[in-house]
Write a structure and sequence with these properties.
2 copies of one chain form a homodimer.
Chain A (H helix, E strand, L loop, with lengths): L1 H28 L4 H10 L5 E2 H8 L3 H13 L3 E4 L8 E4 L3 H36 L5 H33 L2 H4 L7
Antiparallel strand pairs in A: 1-3, 2-3
Helix pairs in contact in A: 1-2, 2-4, 3-4, 5-6
The structure holds a DNA duplex (30 and 30 nucleotides).
Chain lengths: ~180, ~180
DNA sequence: AAGTTTGTTAAAAATATATTTAACGTTCAA
DNA sequence: TTGAACGTTAAATATATTTTTAACAAACTT
């Protein structure tokens, strides 16, 4: 009987491990280190964890857990919680994938839009100088204009990205694409 | 006078380089190798390029260009074109960022949804076995149910991801978020 | 105040990834 | 049918990233 229980316990672990493997694999692709990916996936099935529990569970070094958990906090997939009576820090995983999606991609896209728009603005200023420069030959002016227009066109995309971010942040996107669509 | 021209030419290169740097930097974050990122960003300002031109322009080895261009083709950011009269292969960069966005993220999200859903289905089957098993103790059944429900809940997210992919692929998302919104 | 416990930082080791050099196979041209 | 041009593959090198071990600093306990 207690052996049957052992089997059930093992089956549960097996079930969890399948999902942990899949989650960690996809997170890997998101530029998260293997340690952090495995950690998050493990925490996904836990109420909360301390650094020592992480180390024991994943059989990895404490500094590795420390840096991993910090990276996960940066992308808001893990939060610190206060546990009274314990000196150890405790952490909980964000279990709402919608929120993780929002934080991760919005952060990424916002940065992309900002970085590239800044570069584009500067570049366009340079190009305008060339275009306005009376000593530039016609074909140089033509070339400068061509690039200017190409950059101007690309701004449409970055503005759209910013709109997308805004609609995700505000939750408006779920009016268009409901979360719980009956399949 | 020809010196003035030289200056204008340099200013154009400078302008391009600013944008090339920004594009390459963001692509880096997308899990593309530096060589591929620089290559795409360079091609963004060219009509078309051959492997030898790439090598010359980026001052890198030919195999590096070869593998980079192949990776870029996989994510459909570069396409091969036929140029009559030349034995060399010629490639052009996808200059429509909306299309790049679509291909890259839809590919990624679809894969994520598929991988994780498969794992979830398998895990849920295991958990059901445990729940139905008459020899399982009540607390084990409770635990199995808890995980089952958690996984069931997470499916909502993956379905939503699939819906998002579909609406991007079909272009329906642009009805909700128009490309050219006056700022 | 001395000794633990806890977490982080810094240097070292291990590992993985990216790039190059060298060798190869194919196709075309003479 | 020989040789050159072109592109790819394979092995070697270089580089970057990840993880660990060791040392440290802060906070708490006794």
């Amino acid at each position: 009987m207690s052996e049957q229980n052992e089997q059930s316990r093992m089956k549960i672990e097996e079930a969890k491990d399948k999902v942990i493997g899949a989650i960690a694999e996809t997170m890997d692709l998101y530029g998260v280190t293997p340690a952090a990916a495995n950690l998050y996936a493990t925490m996904y099935f836990k109420e909360q964890m301390t650094l020592d529990e992480m180390r024991t569970e994943l059989e990895m070094s404490k500094p590795s857990m420390s840096t991993s958990v910090r990276k996960l906090q940066e992308i808001e997939m893990v939060k610190k919680t206060f546990t009274r009576g314990s000196r150890k820090h405790t952490y909980i995983a964000e279990k709402n994938f919608f929120r993780s999606f929002m934080v991760f991609y919005c952060q990424m896209w916002e940065r992309e839009a900002k970085t590239n728009m800044e570069a584009i603005e500067e570049a366009q200023e340079d190009l305008i100088e060339v275009i306005k420069d009376s000593s530039s030959t016609p074909d140089i002016v033509t070339e400068a204009k061509k690039y200017y227009d190409q950059l101007e066109e690309s701004k449409v995309y970055y503005h759209w990205l910013e709109d997308l971010v805004a609609s995700i942040r505000s939750g408006k996107i779920f009016e268009f694409l409901p979360k719980d669509q009956q399949k």
